[in-house]
Amino acid sequence: MMTTEIQSLSARINARLESVNYGSTPSTLYEPIRYIMSLGGKRLRPILVLLSYQLFRDDIEEILDQALAVEVFHNFTLMHDDIMDEAPLRRGKATVHEKWDRNTAILSGDVMLVKAYEMLLDAQGDTKTIFQAFNACAAGVCEGQQFDMDFEQTTKVSEDGYLRMIQLKTAVLLGFSLQLGAFMARKEKKTSDALYAMGVDLGIGFQLKDDLLDVYGDQEKFGKQVGGDILANKKTFLLLTALQRASAQQREELEFWMHQTEADPKAKVAAVTALYDQLDIRALTLDKMNEYFGKGLLALQELSVEEQRKRTLKDFIDYLIQREQ
Amino acid sequence: MMTTEIQSLSARINARLESVNYGSTPSTLYEPIRYIMSLGGKRLRPILVLLSYQLFRDDIEEILDQALAVEVFHNFTLMHDDIMDEAPLRRGKATVHEKWDRNTAILSGDVMLVKAYEMLLDAQGDTKTIFQAFNACAAGVCEGQQFDMDFEQTTKVSEDGYLRMIQLKTAVLLGFSLQLGAFMARKEKKTSDALYAMGVDLGIGFQLKDDLLDVYGDQEKFGKQVGGDILANKKTFLLLTALQRASAQQREELEFWMHQTEADPKAKVAAVTALYDQLDIRALTLDKMNEYFGKGLLALQELSVEEQRKRTLKDFIDYLIQREQ
Questions:
Q1: C-beta atoms of B143 and A83 within 8 A
Q2: pTM
Q3: Per the structure, how many domains does chain A have?
Q4: Counting one residue from A and one from B, how many pairs have CB atoms under 8 Å apart?
Q5: In this predicted complex, what is the ipTM?
Q6: How far apart are CA A125 and CA A210, in angstroms?
Q7: Could you give the CA distance from residue A286 to residue A212 in angstroms, rounded to a whole number?
Q8: Are B197 and B235 in contact (CB under 8 A)?
Q9: Looking at residue A304, which CATH number applies to its domain?
């Protein structure tokens, strides 16, 4: 559970998001932005911006609009990823390319990226430094998405290759979010670098948790279909580790199920999960996840900031580790 | 014909473009960027940046890399527009989504937009001012493309609506190009505003010339298929003006041809062109084009810069007016 304090930050972010004016005409361009932004989500990234800034300063009202930039950027990537994945649903609602059409989703996504830059432009702190970091992050996210798509075409993905992919696709944006808080609090490079590295480690932990929840989550709490990654043959940390550790016979069995695209979904999920269980994949993934979260927590511990100021960020990391959805 | 001086600027731009490092891995992300940038083109936009800067300063070597940012941005829009238009060819070569696939074209385009921001970040002058103007321009271009797509669904497009669409889709980027030169030469707002307005007028003139060439161009010189817009029922200034001025019978005839998607291409082009001729569309479009180019030339005349410094930009505008391809 998020603590009350974090829930309150999340509520402030959601309230502020409702007042953002992305643009009005043509409505076919801007309506999909309002739509995807209204679908909700945990708002983890702007929360991280605020929590990072709060390590140093209290006036978060001043930076609320700029914290939203990372959420707009994140949703731009979702809008385009959903086209590429041909996903019909996003948070239980029709994706933009389904509700409108593909061209609309391409172009609305493009303008969202521009809007993210626009919202970031008013950030306090050094504009060049902020944009340099954001450009590197944005290019990284695109690279990660491309690696992810490339991985679909091959079974030869190493653990390192996978970790590099999720670092780019997911973790660098969490790194940038923490870094941005430090930039806006006008902290020195050493501090913003440390927060970036912390965010990247947390981001990798976060994605490994996601991979885990997809297989071992509690259907009641999870929100998405448990086993979705298995059905889609998604090359998660779990599948790659399983393929790597499997005996010849187990590998054959795994590959058999991967080729079953018309199989009964329940049977496929159960069979692959059973193989994961035999191979101890849950514990191995938890170990890896804890390794990264541990690095993040250690970095927070080492940050020269009064202990009491670290509390909310520490609570948030605990939430990321324990979350069940 | 471009003057020797402008040809030499163009050659410097092309040489510099070859040395740009967009990124390397994954190659599936960056190779399409190198590909589209290598297809050539007139490089009008970076030429405009250099010509604007040269109104005030001589050291164009210093701003060459930043001038390329507008060309990279322009090619990002082409890569995504080609997906939306399902265009098989760009400058006579396969489009990116044809040569690779649609997802690659979406994602490579996304990262190109980020690269344009990256290349602009090193521009001399005030970063915030430059990015504010670029954001407005980039959002405008997306709006223009959306209006253009919306227009495909209706025949009720007014002349004003059309001019607003091409202002956004095409002209604001020419405006930004001239403005950027002034920003980098650290000129005051009055001057950069005047250059922006000049660029927008030239951009509208440029697009009207494009519409004209598509019907009345010399096939030998034009490069593209003359009549391509007619065959695609594209709502150009010519078609909209014709629909507006047509008698009941002429309108019926125009609409008849617009519904002929399987007709002999030559017959359709000849018939529609004959209607344009009856309605004096060529002269009307030329008038409108000259009106905008005239405004641009007047703005150049009124700019308080030594006359001799204006010469190359003046030559370039003359080239835009007279170009046959």
A1: no
A2: 0.96
A3: 1
A4: 106
A5: 0.95
A6: 33
A7: 8
A8: no
A9: 1.10.600.10
